[in-house]
Amino acid sequence: MSELFDAVDALVASRAKLPPPAERKRLRAAHGLTIDEVATALKVRRATVSGWENGKTEPRPPERDAYARLLDKLAELYPADATAAPVQDAAVPTTFTAAPVPAEAQTLSTGQASEAADVTATENTQTPAPAAAVPAAAPRPARTTRLSSTSRRQGAKKAAPAGTPAGTDPRFENGPLAVVDVEDGKVLAYCTGGLVLDVPAKSIPALVDWTLREAKLGQPKLSGPGKDADPLLVLTEAALERYGLPVTLTEEEKHAGRIPEGHKVIKQLARAEWKLTKRGFGPWARIYRPATGSERACVQLCIPSWNALDTRHWGEAGQLPPAELARVLGVYASRVMTPRGSTAVTGLELMTALHPPTRASEPDADGKRHSEHNPGSLGKGAIDPMNWPPCEVPDGHPVLKDLPRFHVRGPAEKLFEEAYDWARPMTDAECTLRHLVGIDVNMAFAAGANGLNVGLGEATHVKAPAFDPKLPGSWLVDLSHVDLSRVKVGKEWVELDGNLLPSPFTPKGERPEGPAWYATPTVAYAQELGYDVRPLEAWVRYENGRYLDGWYNRLRDAYLATMADLGVDADLNPTDFLAAMDGYKARDPELAIVTTAIKATVKGGLGKLRERPRGEGWRPGEPWRALSRPTWRPDIRAAVISRTRINLHRKIVKHAAFTGQYPVAILSDCVVYASNGPSPLDFLPYRDGRPLPGGFKLGINPGLVKHEGTQLVLWGEEVRERFHAPELNLARYIKDGTVTDVDNGE
User: Fold this and answer.
1) How far is CA 732 from the centre of its chain?
2) How many C-beta neighbours within 10 Å does residue 536 have?
3) Residue 43, by phi and psi: left (phi above 0), alpha (psi -120 to 50) or beta?
4) What sign does the dihedral 533-538-541-546 (CA atoms) show?
5) What phi and psi, each to the nearest 5 degrees, are found at residue 687?
6) Which residues pair with 670 in a beta bridge?
7) Residues near 331 by Cβ (< 8 Å), separated by ≥ 6?
8) Lowest-pLDDT range, 82-96, 469-483, 532-546, 636-650?
């Protein structure tokens, strides 16, 4: 009998009534759910839920019944006719909805801070467009309006703040951050999801105290042994005036990166027993009290008008209204982490947040736990500057203090793993073609970090070692014998025109002339090309691991999710991908800012691994502040750049072996080819929609390529002639064709 009942249930489920696709998306977004959360709950793929929401596919039993039940319950909470429904806690989606609906959020007094999550709008959770369609520009969120808190329906269910996963920590129910502004004489805190809080604080010390006691801002830790993220307050110009801070910094203050120690606000903080970090009260000030036990008391400030949000990485974010700025920073915080400073600082902090240096030990005989080294991390202490391999450190490092003052280190003394900056004159055959087409590798340096084995501890010096491609380190080896005219591609030897290829061993693409220092991926590639390598000496790290894997995964997921919200999905075919990428930033300029910030987090975080001195009276041979960090690791930076450059060269060689086409110019992760047509599909060897294995593939995933730009071959020849530079790097200008000066490689 039970089998009959099951059969009947299945029959009913197969006809379960579902709302239209646009309504499904609206209901999910209204409850603050992401596509990934729905997919996980229903045990299906993300692309499956995406297809249900854009009408490409329909759910089948048994998922159909569960999906219908979810939508029915959400429809009860968030009726479609929002204007006729009574005011309630339901979050009203502000963006990417089937029909634009004004965002409404309550202003909560400080006495009701514990209920701050009651009325929120959701972060953007747009799904990819159908295969052949690109969505129009997303409706802009309406200006957040405030309702009296007394209008809240009693007993209504709370909605989660925008972008927060299920089971949000109640300590941080109002999100990771707030933008503090002043309107009509009232101080307001704009949180993620459209939530607005009344701020009673009349001074900066009181604002910090209110944030920690009542605002319920912050973010749970990203790793088990880690620490929760401190709340972030973004102060608008109006808020700066209200709290007695300058709206802009003077030239002297900009140079110092802070306001003077004698400023009245700093004195107020001192009287209230708050402290500032060594960077002082600057664009990214941290205000704290020393931790007592596990309790932390720290608030991060961000001041856009002091250039906290660098326009190179955050675009026009600093000029956005408070609600929109809260949305941009909130999406970034939920997908990457709460900003801790510039994108570079945040990229570095993300590494530590995912691999905390210490963890709690197992209980001892008395049942007490102690702090111990966390395996897989870089540890708590920095490497002693005098223990660094001389080849791995930049000029001016303490370990080099005995070198003559004006000594210039050559390849045999200095590890020089950098990105490509290479170009060559075009051949006669290439000049007969019509176009120059640039392709760009998506998040190339993130892809270079994925799965990379890096050193975790100090290096060991070895003389005449046997090369081990699995052992991270720096190797002194002569690779001048590697001839690109005859190399192994896979298991077969192929003949190539080596004069048209850059060397994989130098950033300028020049063939090495003798022994030089290289990171492990570079030497391993020489072996892959079919040549023997015999290192003269090496600095190797026997303690190693895939330290950057979690970092890569976090940033990859953040990038893919945000690009999917902009209509560029990871599953698009090449033609639809190129169409989706055309003008994607205009669909939602705010989310486009987030994608730029994510990419800057990758590059900046890796750059911080080899941070150079920043003034402060530093002199060559003296240590500088960054050397005291466990995350000052130029060897890891070098390994990532080495692997990124090698990954690109491998694709170039496979493309040349299969098609006979060679690059004209390379700049970092952009490659330019001459082509008869203006599209990458005019020269990339796709067959039945499938790319060349191991070659270039169009797509949004890290390591795949997108269209960077197209110019005429005549344009390239004209600018090279105009500047009398036959090897002008055209990859630098391929995007818009604007050439402003001679390419000097800087």
Assistant:
1) 23
2) 13
3) left
4) negative
5) -130, 120
6) 440, 667
7) 123, 124, 163, 562, 591, 594
8) 82-96
End-to-end CA distance of the chain: 78
Q: Residue 703: in which H helix or E strand, if any?
A: none
d(CA 181, CA 138): 26
Using alpha carbons, select from 392, 438, 422, 412 the residue that is nearest to residue 503: 422
DSSP state of 136: P
Distance between CA atoms of residues 94 and 194, nearest Å: 8
Q: DSSP 3-state assignment of 345?
A: helix
Give Dmax over CA atoms of the chain in angstroms. Answer: 92
Give the C-alpha separation, 309 to 284, whole Å: 9
Reported as type and span, the H/E element at residue 487 is strand 486-489
Tell me the backbone φ, ψ of residue 105, rounded to 5 degrees: -145, 145
Tokens at residue 210, please? 């209110």
Q: What value does the CA radius of gyration of the chain take, rounded to a whole number of Å?
A: 28
333 is written with which tokens? 């915080």
Contacts of 568 (CB under 8 A, 6+ apart): 128, 577, 580, 581, 584, 700
11 band by pLDDT with thresholds 50, 70 and 90: low
460 class by beta-carbon count within 10 Å (0-12 exposed, 13-18 middle, 19+ buried):
middle
Q: Residue 283, preceding bond cis, omega within 30 degrees?
A: no
Are 210 and 174 spatial neighbours (Cβ–Cβ below 8 Å)?
no
The conformation of residue 496, written as its DSSP 8-state character, comes to -
Q: What is the DSSP letter of 547?
A: T
Using CA atoms, how far residue 212 sits from 266, 299, 337, in Å, is 19, 8, 19
What b/e sequence results for 406-416 when a residue is b if at least 16 CB atoms lie within 10 Å of its CB, and e otherwise?
eeebebebbbb
- Residue 218's pLDDT band (boundaries 50, 70, 90)? very high
Dist CA 697 CA 574 (whole Å) = 8
Burial label for 686, CB within 10 Å (0-12, 13-18, 19+), is middle
pLDDT digits (tens, 9 = 90+) for 441-500: 999 999 999 999 999 999 999 999 999 999 999 999 999 999 999 999 988 999 999 999
Q: Which DSSP state fits 385?
A: G
Please give the sequence-ordered ranges of beta strands (E in DSSP) within 282-402, or none if there are none: 286-292, 295-302, 358-360, 371-373
Q: Which pair of tokens denotes residue 448?
A: 């270079």
The pLDDT tens digits for 230-258 are 999 999 999 999 999 999 999 999 999 99
SS3 268: helix
CB-side exposure of 333: number of CA atoms within 13 Å?
Answer: 35
Contact present, 351 and 551 (Cβ < 8 Å): yes
Q: What one-letter code names the amino acid at 638? A: A
Taking the CA of residue 295 as centre, how many other CA atoms within 13 Å lie in the half-sphere pointing to its CB?
Answer: 5
> Please, which residues bridge with residue 671 across strands?
439, 666
Q: Regarding beta strands 196-198 and 104-108, do their DSSP bridges make them parallel or antiparallel, or are they unpaired?
A: parallel
Flag whether pLDDT at 113 surpasses 60.
no
Q: Are 259 and 246 in contact (CB under 8 A)?
A: yes
Region 273-280: mean pLDDT is 93
